[in-house]
UniProtKB/TrEMBL annotation:
<keyword id="KW-0378">Hydrolase</keyword>
<dbReference type="Pfam" id="PF12708">
    <property type="entry name" value="Pect-lyase_RHGA_epim"/>
</dbReference>
<dbReference type="InterPro" id="IPR006626">
    <property type="entry name" value="PbH1"/>
</dbReference>
<dbReference type="InterPro" id="IPR000743">
    <property type="entry name" value="Glyco_hydro_28"/>
</dbReference>
<comment type="similarity">
    <text>Belongs to the glycosyl hydrolase 28 family.</text>
</comment>
<dbReference type="GO" id="GO:0004650">
    <property type="term" value="F:polygalacturonase activity"/>
</dbReference>
<protein>
    <submittedName>
        <fullName>Polygalacturonase</fullName>
        <ecNumber>3.2.1.15</ecNumber>
    </submittedName>
</protein>
<feature type="domain" description="Rhamnogalacturonase A/B/Epimerase-like pectate lyase">
    <location>
        <begin position="6"/>
        <end position="49"/>
    </location>
</feature>
<dbReference type="InterPro" id="IPR011050">
    <property type="entry name" value="Pectin_lyase_fold/virulence"/>
</dbReference>
<dbReference type="InterPro" id="IPR024535">
    <property type="entry name" value="RHGA/B-epi-like_pectate_lyase"/>
</dbReference>
<dbReference type="Pfam" id="PF00295">
    <property type="entry name" value="Glyco_hydro_28"/>
</dbReference>
<keyword id="KW-0326">Glycosidase</keyword>
<dbReference type="InterPro" id="IPR012334">
    <property type="entry name" value="Pectin_lyas_fold"/>
</dbReference>
<dbReference type="InterPro" id="IPR051801">
    <property type="entry name" value="GH28_Enzymes"/>
</dbReference>
Length: 434
């Protein structure tokens, strides 16, 4: 008796022209009902949203591609969380929603045809599109939520998930989002050709017991990032991200490994180790804003090798004001989705508390002909809520400028060598305020 179902037996063409969504969904539904794996055989399958079921096993053959449709109508709106706020938003290309014991594996490709979505957002010249219209109206804070673009893969309210060997390219928005999940393993996933806006690599969001290992990421935004909800809505949900391990990964471009900026539910118990960074904008990054609140604590980072990284340690607790400051006169008169984004946390809980961060065994080097900025440290918190108990040990850092250390209590350097070429370039204080 066969143990797997081939999607071509359900009428999938794999020619990249005809939509194969219905045929593949039929195979997924029957496979879950019969306890059989679904086999994505070699071909290019044009699809909208696909929904995995409890116990689904999806296996890609070498040369198999899920090609995301360019029609937003092919991604039905679902109740979800996007960029830290719960709201209706388009489903992803591949979804595991309230579906436990799911496995996605094989050397296949999920291609989001991102250029189409990037052009809608910011134009082919990256200086037009709908985002510019919102900017002119002082609505940068809401633009990312209004310009809807499909994610590539969404794991949501699910347990016992394994994702291995898949390649993600050209996501319309985030590539792999893991939200309200528990016990997730992501291994040997490759993310590339993702240089559009908001093309995060792997987002771990209000989830627990997650390991990301042996992955390679090249992104237009944060490559691997841990989050827990934005501002008032994240505070309302109140779900922490905890017990997260990121190890033996390679970061090739983008904003590195990041905690934040959505941290209203708190981040705790994070171990990041044995990571290679090359030509990325950031190495280990933390970012938040006054409006987030929450906390980042008990983080161990060790065994990092960075080559030609602009900002090895960029920790900004009041990051990107135009994105975070919300401009409105009466929240009650805003559309419901706008109200969710605009919701604030109690004033006495604002500003993120960062404490108990241990960094060890780091080597950051620059090539002699390196042309871009290179700032060793940006450790910037609020005087009212300083970072506490920050330890750097056995680190060697080459940079063009030292950077900033603001509102940090209990900062310890043990066997740390920093080589600085010149004075600070203060234009780098507003790095990534896009």
């Amino acid at each position: 008796m066969t143990t797997q179902l081939d999607i071509k037996d359900f009428g999938a063409t794999g020619n990249g022209v005809e939509k194969d969504t219905h045929a593949i969904q039929q195979a997924i539904d029957l496979g879950a009902a019969q306890g059989k794996a679904v086999f994505i055989s070699k071909g290019v399958y044009l699809v909208g949203a696909l929904f995995l079921k409890e116990g689904s096993k999806l296996k890609f053959e070498d040369g198999a591609t899920l090609l995301g449709s360019k029609d937003l109508a092919d991604y039905p709106e679902i109740e979800t969380r996007v960029a830290g706020v719960e709201m209706p938003w388009p489903a992803a290309i591949l979804n595991a929603i309230s579906a436990n014991n799911v496995e996605i594996s094989g050397n296949g490709l999920i291609d989001g045809q991102g250029q189409h979505w990037w052009d809608i957002y910011c134009g082919a010249d990256k200086n037009s599109g709908l985002r510019v219209d919102y900017d002119k109206k002082g609505l940068r804070w809401i633009a990312d939520y209004l310009v809807k673009r499909p994610r590539s893969c969404l794991i949501y309210e699910a347990e016992n998930i394994k994702i291995s060997d898949i390649t993600f390219e050209r996501a319309g928005f985030w590539n792999l989002q893991i939200t309200y999940a528990n016990n997730v393993l992501v291994r040997n996933v490759k993310i590339g050709d993702n240089h559009g806006p908001s093309t995060d690599g792997i987002d771990i969001d209000s989830s627990t017991n997650v390991r990301v290992t042996e992955c390679v990421a090249s992104c237009g935004d944060d490559c691997i990032v841990i989050k827990s909800g934005r501002d008032g809505d994240g505070y309302r949900v109140g779900k922490i991200s905890e017990n997260i391990e990121i190890d033996n990964c390679k970061i090739k471009s983008g904003y590195g490994i990041t905690l934040g900026s959505e941290v209203s539910g708190g981040l705790r118990g994070i171990h990041i180790h044995d990571i290679e960074f090359e030509d990325s904008d950031c190495g280990f990054r933390m970012k938040s804003s006054k409006e987030r609140g929450g906390f980042i604590e008990d983080v161990v980072v060790e065994n990092l090798h960075m080559k030609n990284v602009q900002f090895p340690f960029s920790w900004i607790m009041d990051w990107h004001n135009s994105y975070n400051r919300k401009l409105f006169e009466n929240i009650d008169q805003l559309p419901e989705m706008w109200q969710a984004v605009a919701l604030q946390i109690p004033e006495n809980m604002q500003m993120t508390k960062v404490r108990n961060i241990s960094i060890s065994n780091v080597k950051a080097t620059l090539d002699p002909d390196y042309k871009l900025p290179a700032r060793a440290f940006d450790l910037v918190a609020f005087p009212e809520k300083p970072m506490e108990n920050i330890r750097f040990s056995q680190c060697s850092i080459e940079a063009k400028e030292f950077g900033r250390i603001v509102a940090v209590n209990g900062l310890q350097f043990n066997d740390v060598t920093v080589s600085i070429a010149g004075e600070n370039d203060y234009s780098n204080d507003t790095f990534d305020n896009r």
